[in-house]
Amino acid sequence: MHSDAIKTGPARAPARAMLRATGLDDAAIAKPLVAVVSTWSDVSPCNITLRDLAQDVRRGVIAAGGTPIEFNTIAVTDGIAMGSDGMRASLASRETIADSIELAVSGHCLDAMVVLVGCDKTIPAAAMAAARLDVPSVILYGGTIMPGKCKTKHADGSSGERALTVQDVFEAVGAHAAGKIDDAELGEIERKACPGAGACGGQFTANTMAMVLTFLGLSPLGDNDIPAVHPEKANAAERCGALAMKLLTDGGPTPRQLLTPAALRNAARAVSATAGSTNAALHLLAIAHEAGVKFDL
Residue 130 belongs to what domain range? Predict the structure, then answer.
């Protein structure tokens, strides 16, 4: 195990002493040490569930015979930063997130990892870090938001409800600027579009890249598709903890074994077939670069 470098033999007694101070005993220290990395933040709905999901991942790791080592990293949320100087931080944050995951996992010689991701740049960043580290890795997307509901009038004069996403808010801003809707209508759409936790509800960057990770084999089939507030999401997180341990026990496949030219082309096809975010072009190229795979625009 990689973690033997920090926990095995008389010379590592100081490291073991510090591990004991965190609550680990002899048995826990002897087991594989599995990173549980969360990109939790309460600045947006996209990542707000990830701290709780990390506890589900921990249970899965423990049940499968490992010891979870949990830490957090940052997120910059495009939906909030967009249209401001803050958007200049968005793509740069991808590199910082990937760097921080790589540094913490390699710095503590951890054996495997599960990364919980949400808003846009956290998703490719997790894949980039996995490619660099090449330890058994599982990435789980926190899930999409549910649609909002807003009252609307039909052409025949009857009223009803229509489903909303954050895209409707952007479009409402344009309609308001054009004088087509008033302040009250804009306010109603703003208040109803995002009803709770989850990333932007559409085939925007987060949902697109979550799909990409499934096609690349870095996320379990189907688990990224579960919405953020669905009760099954906690079970998916627990399964991911167990899966990381299984990959470690079975000897892989590791991320670089999964990130082949064929897998990258397959992911690109999925983006095109679903009218996914064009940001996928940026992120697929970056993931391929970290994996040492020749893959061009």
Answer: 31-145+198-291
